[in-house]
Here is the input.
Amino acid sequence: MTQRNSRSTIREVAREAGVSVTTVSHALSGKGIVAESTRAKVVETARRLRYRPNAVASGLRNNRLGILALVLRPLDTLESFLPEGVDYFLRFAGAASLSALEHGYGLMLLSDPTLPDAPSISLAADGFIITEPVENDPVIDLLQAEGIPLLTVGKDLGRPHYDAWIEPRTAKITRHVLDHLEENGAARVAIAIGTDRNSWNITTEASYREWCSERGQEPIVVTQRETSGTLGGRAIGEEILSMTDRPDAVYCLTGRHAAGMMARLGEAGIASPADILIVAGSDSEQTRNSVPPISAIDLEPEVLARAAIAALVEQLVGIPNRGSEAGTDGRFIIRGSSQR
Amino acid sequence: MTQRNSRSTIREVAREAGVSVTTVSHALSGKGIVAESTRAKVVETARRLRYRPNAVASGLRNNRLGILALVLRPLDTLESFLPEGVDYFLRFAGAASLSALEHGYGLMLLSDPTLPDAPSISLAADGFIITEPVENDPVIDLLQAEGIPLLTVGKDLGRPHYDAWIEPRTAKITRHVLDHLEENGAARVAIAIGTDRNSWNITTEASYREWCSERGQEPIVVTQRETSGTLGGRAIGEEILSMTDRPDAVYCLTGRHAAGMMARLGEAGIASPADILIVAGSDSEQTRNSVPPISAIDLEPEVLARAAIAALVEQLVGIPNRGSEAGTDGRFIIRGSSQR
DNA sequence: CTAATCACCCAAAACGTTTTGGGCAAGACT
DNA sequence: AGTCTTGCCCAAAACGTTTTGGGTGATTAG
Here is the structure.
């Protein structure tokens, strides 16, 4: 057994400094009233003994461990952290970690804590970030039942009155993309969205329909499971090929779908950008590597992650969150697939 | 203040079931001897009260929190989790998280815990994974002083007798690459390595020199800071251009360097693969996206991460680690830059 | 001169577990 | 008959903090 030798305790510091543990605690935390001379003495002996308060003990006492948890919901439906096509989430996780550290918290990556074999430490986190919850997400039910603060990235549409969320300005982004396609000569714009009932899919569709009705265009909506990857993208291409009145532009939410679709259409002689304009709703390796490279929205997960952590930390110190759209409209990266 | 209402405690379960807390503890953990009838009764009331043991309290008592920490050392020298060029680390982190969860642990991403403002929770982890430690890494000193188990990915070369490490078969990989270059017609092979004194750089250089001496080739070693990115790669190109007896192949450890170098050489009229063969030691977006795409080693961080977590968990249950090369030789992805 | 305030300090309780060191019957051996 | 196991159970201690609720003695106010 690895012996964890001799981490010194507050009691030892107290004995060594000739004061009570109360005084040590006060001296180090700056809470009670303690004479400057004794405070100095305590600080000095603490330093000498290399004393560091035991975070678990103080966590137990304070009911505050100093850990935030991050649950990337869409990954719970994938079979694993795929190396490709998930760079959005990995960037999010990295940025969230750093941001948490800056706020004095550690960040724990978790998968679905409702699973029976979830480590019991899961529920010991001080607060949770849940990205892209599904509608009426059971993870949220669990956390609420346990009284654990949480913040979602992307609204849970089944909880219209729940206010602890943050999300990009999806409606604005959608219009931005659609306008761009129109400006580049598109007359019939279709969208391809995922099947998860999350805010991104649903808000995008709603904005799209609104945009269409303003122009009297008949909406064309194709859906495809987000997990289906480039193969699913090919299926979207298939569906578009079969349409009698084919669209001349597609806004495809996931990058892998966009790449697969473009490949399939290309095989059928429909080239981009000549015959069809394509924009992807999230940037990924596939959109960057396609020929031509596919225009995409970089959702700037770093910005979202920082905002999410900041909001959660605020909630933890007692400032209630009010649902808000984070300071990102995405960065629209215009590449070859949508310009002519 | 968010009120964390009414998580039920073991005491409540005991009262409700009409037994002592000892018995509840034993019944649920399966440790002591308890009559089957009372065990059933306890389990039932625990379920009814939705009792979940408080991980912090049991962590305090057991000196085992159920959290592992991951410190990606090379990122501590970067300014932040860069979105590009660090996909190796992000893949590592993702795979490590999942692997930890499978072993019943949470995984915390940390940066350098020796920093004065590191959250105190940092040292509460049950064990640490340190990737690519620098020589005589102070993080290792700290963890050893605190008696916290750790495992490094890549040896700390300043600690030749320290056995808790794991790493890919760098020597074998190096020879594999060099042989490949030779087979494709290279007569003078150079290497470009980073300046960090970590196992990857140093072992690669040693293997390279050995390989050279076997052939009587004079070694050509260019060094460049890892953090310098594609710009540093251009500097490598510059250096190669200035050589009187120019190499006709370069094995460049980092992907960004390789891409920058190829770009610079191309500008000077030295094309790959016609005039110079190039292989990168780690695959990244830049190697995949260059024209021509650059051959690279995929170090399979997922494999390494799983092995690292497994070894650390073994250490935690008392099986000492013996330094070992993990089951990966890397996956050599041969692209256009190294074939003719 | 007494009472009240103040600055400083501390013992003990509490956080929710796990483990130690028994106690008490009932049955099994001398 | 008494003594030993054995099966089952429990009270209390312990993990290392923070906070509560005083307790001093010295200074100030009445």
Observations:
- Residues 19-23, 26, 32-35, 38, 57, 59-63 of chain A lie near DNA strand C (CB under 10 Å from a C1').
- Residues 101 and 136 of chain A are 30 Å apart (CA to CA).
- Residues 199-215 of chain A form the longest helix (17 residues).
